[in-house]
Write a structure and sequence with these properties.
- 74% of the residues lie in helices and 0% in strands.
- It has 248 residues and is an all-alpha fold.
Length: 248
């Protein structure tokens, strides 16, 4: 199933390129065009780049959702069910292929970050830890996307469902400090799973991690692991169960 999904890259190179270029455009737009850094003292780039790494983990879910719904609509699932494979292998293969693309996309974004002046100040172990946290978040977001695709059921419904991803991405501390927000909004932002990962990555890299001083901000590393594990525990079995019950 993973080889099948990876083979699609050769037939749809434009989609892969767009997936890699879009996060780079977002990074350059926020760092050079729009600016920002509300609540951040000094250079905004060291604060922004780890935040954009985190936001990138939420981008591209629509491609996953669209691929799953297309398989459902074209009857591919029925053909695979006639073969000796475990329930959910199609979904797992899709998630593994998307994780591979996420690794490539993250590598591209790190390269662009270095090009615009961002630097990693931690060691190799902390770098591996930060990458691990980012990919763990991506894995959780993928299963949320797969679950939503199973709920949507049809490709034309994906566009409506994918809108839910954007509030989760922008209601985080990726591009602005919670301290600069109204108290109620800042508290909500600090408990966002993406905020936990962004804060933890900033801590590991030695970049500024401006926060409101809440428990969530002080224990960002713990939440950066706990949130994705919880989300996977909820959405992975739910998606597989819904897939297993299709047409029954």
């Amino acid at each position: 199933m993973t080889r099948r999904e990876l083979a699609h890259w050769r037939r749809r190179p434009a989609q892969v390129v767009v997936g890699l270029v879009f996060p780079v455009m977002m990074l350059l737009m926020f760092s050079h065009l729009i600016g920002g850094g509300r609540g951040v003292d000094g250079d905004f780039t060291p604060y922004l780049v780890p935040g954009m790494f985190t936001m990138t983990m939420a981008f591209g879910l629509e491609a996953t959702m669209l691929a799953v719904t297309q398989d459902l609509g074209k009857g591919v699932v029925d053909r695979f069910r006639s073969m000796p494979m475990t329930d959910g292998a199609l979904l797992v293969g899709r998630s593994v292929a998307d994780m591979a693309q996420s690794v490539v996309g993250l590598a591209v974004l790190i390269t662009v970050g270095y090009a615009i002046g961002w630097r990693w100040h931690g060691g190799l172990t902390s770098f591996a830890g930060a990458v691990g946290l980012l990919l763990l978040l991506r894995f959780a977001m993928l299963w949320i996307g797969v679950h939503l695709a199973m709920v949507a059921g049809r490709p034309e419904m994906v566009q409506a469902v994918q809108i839910l991803v954007w509030p989760a991405a922008f209601l985080s501390n990726a591009i602005a400090s919670p301290a600069s927000m109204p108290p109620w909004l800042g508290a909500l932002v600090e408990w966002n799973p993406m905020s936990a990962t962004a804060t933890a990555v900033r801590g590991l890299s030695g970049d500024p991690g401006v926060s409101g001083g809440s428990w969530a901000a002080a224990h960002a590393g713990l939440l950066a692991v706990a949130w994705p594990v919880f989300l996977v525990a909820v959405f992975l079995p739910s998606a597989v169960k819904r897939f297993r019950n299709l047409g029954r």
